[in-house]
Peroxisomal ATPase PEX1
Amino acid sequence: MPRQATIRYVSLRNSLVNLPLSLYAPLVEHRVRAQGVAVHLSGNVKGKNVSAHVGWTGLAAASSLALRGAGASETVEIDPQYAASLGFAEGVMVEIGLLHDLPVAKHVATEPCSADDWEIIELHANYIEESLLSQVRVASVGQEVDAWVLGRTRVRFRVVSTDPPGPCMLSTDTEVSIAPKSRTVPRPASKPSTTEPVASTSTPSFSKPGVPLRVIPASLVKGLSVPSTSATEATLLVAPHTLESLSLAPSALVRVKALRPPFTLSKATAPANATSEPVARVLKPQERDAAPATKDPKKSDQEAKEETPVVARLLSDASVPIGQAVCIGVGSALVADWDIREPTPATTTTAPSITSELFVVPSSVLVLLIDMLRRPARLSGVDALLDEGTNYILHSFAVSAPSVTGLLVLGRPGSGRTSVAREVARRVQGKTCAHIIYRDMSSLAEDRPSVIKDAWRDLLDRSRWSSPAVLVLDNLDVVVGAEVEHADSSRQRHLAELFLSLFKGSKGGVAVIVTAKGTANLHPLLATSHLFGVHLGLKSPGREARREILATLISTHLSTSSHLELDPTEPPNYISLAGTTEGYSVSDLEDLVKRSVGCAVERACELTPALSARDFDIAQRDFVPLALRDVQQSGKGDVRWGDIGGLKETRRVLRETLEWPTKYGPIFAGCPLRLRSGLLLYGYPGCGKTLLASAVARECGLNFISVKGPELLNKYIGASEKSVRELFERASAAKPCVLFFDEFDSIAPKRGHDSTGVTDRVVNQMLTQMDGAEGLDGVYVLAATSRPDLIDPALLRPGRLDKALLCNMPDGNERLEILRVVARKVSLSPDVDLSDYTTQTEGYSGADLQALVYNAHLDAVHETMLLPQSSDTGSGNGQDGRSVRVKQFGAGELGQKSAAEETALQRRMAAMMNPRRSGSGSPVKPMTNGEHAAPMPKIEVDDGHLLKALRGMKPSLPADERARLDWIYAKFSSDRSEGLPAPSGGGGVGQRASLM
């Protein structure tokens, strides 16, 4: 028996209902699945019987639970939009019937309710297919079915037929078909033919059909012979084949009228920066007649201009391509470049009286924009990329590709990707007379997807109308970026699907050039799409490319400035500048040249500025390239090769591997073998591994990034790998760069011995980064460890960490060299012979020897401070002027000062009383006393201090520990010489074989 309930609106966003509690409880008690229940609703709404078949959500109406026991009628909850489409109003009493025996539909045919619904279904077909059964359970002929895309956009379609007939249940075996519903564009009413006779003294009559032609700029036609045109008429140059098709004699008069495109451009999506190249006519004369026509207020100035016919003299020129036309002379201002014009033959009984007053600029127009036709700047260092991109587009135009041709230009900011895209488009235009349309997508970054879609459709329609055309979409990754983790990426995916649906479904004759920072910055749907057949990757220019770019930039500045010249005595050396600008991008080189020109102008003052090599040296001071401005680099320090004692062989290999390829780049560029890019420094603690890395950062002229273990290790899955990727990206941006990993065994131990798996993931990611397909170009990896046996063997094979350098314990000669290097920083007594201490320091490391000298110097300082001093500062011989007696007043008696505070106060008082100093630097007492204070004694380290420090020290590395490390290093070196070590066998549960 049907139950009665009241309709209650609840935003469910589906085509299902929530049942009253009286129906919900029995269904749950008998464990009836919601997918097998159909609900029949019937009621009387405003005197009209309304019924519908819907599905059940499997839930009870919350309003029924709230009103339980209050005596009110039960409620059935339904989405308000869906209820309105069915005809149910809120508060209407309906009868509810449950149907358990409806057949399962084999096929359901539907159609969208509107063209908008069909477009949404096309864009989100996959999502609707996956989520339809969770929103719709029952289909009935003539009934509307609603579905929500991503819980926001409503899609409406109506059921046309079902198999079997009648209400049916939907299941996973049901086939649902949706018929397309195209958008019908109303055609404008046909205009009456203008064949009525007119006065033969002023306007010609037209009798023959015309030929559609595309107007191109005269600058694109090579070898064009510009005729001497009359001051009172325009001239239209066409190919001889076009003139024959019109069956007209040369110099015939024709009427040139613009053809309107079959689409309407959206004014909201055509901002001022959506420009075409080259710029169209900017001089816009207006027609002035004796009897001016009344302007239609509904038509814009552009529409009125397009409808204004231009009478021109038709001439032929063999250099004009077939299907194109060039308009010059008076009246050409009304014929914009890239318009589609139809010249119609004209017959007149008398010559038309076209006077100079026909096209006159009104006196109110005071600003005239002049189109400066300049020779485009030459791009240096990217000739191969330009040829590849140009040939790809020309080939697609030649074979009449059935779809849009896509070219993707990738590069970091400042790499010149926009200039490369424009240059490719310009080259294609010079070969095919293609129309260039440029649009910067960053201006649409904050707009709604519907606005962006309209903008893309308008650009594509304009390109198809003036095909062949090249559409340049700059910075597309700003609009269609990659998906971000832990954030809603539905907007990016929606825009990516929109872009592909528009451009992949379009016809040929259009090439799309897209620029982006990289494939990782674009949405994966675009990056992996077949729309872009060629990817042009712009990298940092090499040495030879930088030399060409610098020469081109300097010559451009010299040619554009009449007050600048090169210094004949010291001209810039392009080869030297190319060597000192490693890692600079094109924009960095341009900024450097501008800074150098500014230095030359500033130095010259009123004289003629002469650009010299010294100006570039000044400009490079404190100049940070664009790629390094956001890169955190470690300090290079002040350690030089001369500050390191011993380790001669290790220093030699480091210089060959890191310094020579940068210093002698042209020589190593011709080497056919792959250069080493990874080094492992291993050895005893305190033997100079980290000191060598500091010297590398200072001496090799490379950027230096030091890595600590906590910067990379993270317990969350994916975080450590991301840190490693970002680290190598930083190094690539700062190349040539050295990545220094200290205590490498703690960052990349053997895999399989970490209970958390963090270091295993770090090792895997480092293997990928260090052995990629492209290799580490300009990035060197330097690792230091005292336990090389704990490092994962895969990182030690050739191709990753190619060479392992042992930092051994110093022998007698090396200890003497280390002592002499360290002793340069202190003052030694002349009678000290450091060679006497080489035998007494057997087993000492470099750090131990440094501590020996520093401890001896500290003893000498303490000994000097303990020299006897007089406490009387009265009138004496000035020998006790170093001490100042202080009398404290007031709060000074509250506490006793420490020795450090007392010393600091003494220094302040001495500085106030002795403001002047003698030429030797010794403090001088006030001139009122006329006596000089005694100079501070010189602190010297003698044998006594060294012997005292030596007696208080012992080697930091015990003998048994050294013996164990000797065995480890000997086994490690022998294993590397014979091959990779075999993986160790699995240990017991909880054992860690890598931690010895």
Observations:
- The longest helix spans residues 846-865.
